[in-house]
Amino acid sequence: MSLEIQNLHVRVEDGDEILHGVDLRVAKGETHALMGPNGSGKSTLANTIMGNPSYEITAGKIVLDGNDVTEADPDERARAGVFMAFQYPATIPGVSVANFLRMAVNAGREEPIKVKEFGDTLRRNMEMLRIDPQFTKRYLNEGFSGGEKKRAEILQLAMLRPEIAVLDETDSGLDVDALRVVADGVNELSGPEMGTLIITHYTRILNYVRPDFVHIMLDGRIVREGGPELADQLEAEGYEGIRQEVASGA
After folding, report:
1. Model confidence pLDDT, tens digit, residues 112-128
2. pTM for this structure?
3. Options 3.50.50.60, 3.40.50.300, 3.40.50.1110, 3.40.1190.20; CATH of 2-247
4. Contacts by 121-129 with C-beta closer than 8 Å and gap 24+?
5. What band does 74 get if pLDDT is binned at 50, 70 and 90?
């Protein structure tokens, strides 16, 4: 499976265009990092991939495994194997983490998962992510720290095992210990059965998750693409250095 973004132009409803012709392809087994400063269009791209109706596609296509899903609803994209970890996950009072995860798993199945199978799978994934068993009894994201919210999303990723995972600013607001737990989870889940798009402002998560490909976005366009060495260049020069390089035509 692959996710292909083809000449994508996007604007907010009744607003200015934010993405100006983005091309990107993420295949199963690949880890991509999309980097850019605040306001460059990274989260707009993530939300558009998942079908957020607040973003209007004015040109271009989103193709999943050869099928045009540009007009597909978010739940159709999710059932097709696309997962998104949000920059600001929603709080759902009254719904425990465990119940939420069970509903999420069942949404992608024809038959509900058996209680024992769900419990065994949940325990294995919590052990992998070093999550306290009491964590899943709490209401989803209610009173959670930033790190706990991100751990909950990575746990959801582990339970759903999507074919394409879009991680929008997963490292935002994490201390070093929480960042390492999240990165270890991403590394554990990455492999031939999942393609990963890590969207980030900083290079620090890439110290733990080494991407195969790096893309740099400025002002709604991908202006540089390369291997992990591109992240090293960004660390040395900053976004302004890349911006000046682009402006000079280098």
Report:
1. 999 999 999 999 999 88
2. 0.91
3. 3.40.50.300
4. 121/159, 122/98, 122/159, 125/155, 125/158, 125/159, 126/155, 128/158, 128/185, 128/188, 129/154, 129/155, 129/158, 129/181, 129/184, 129/185
5. very high
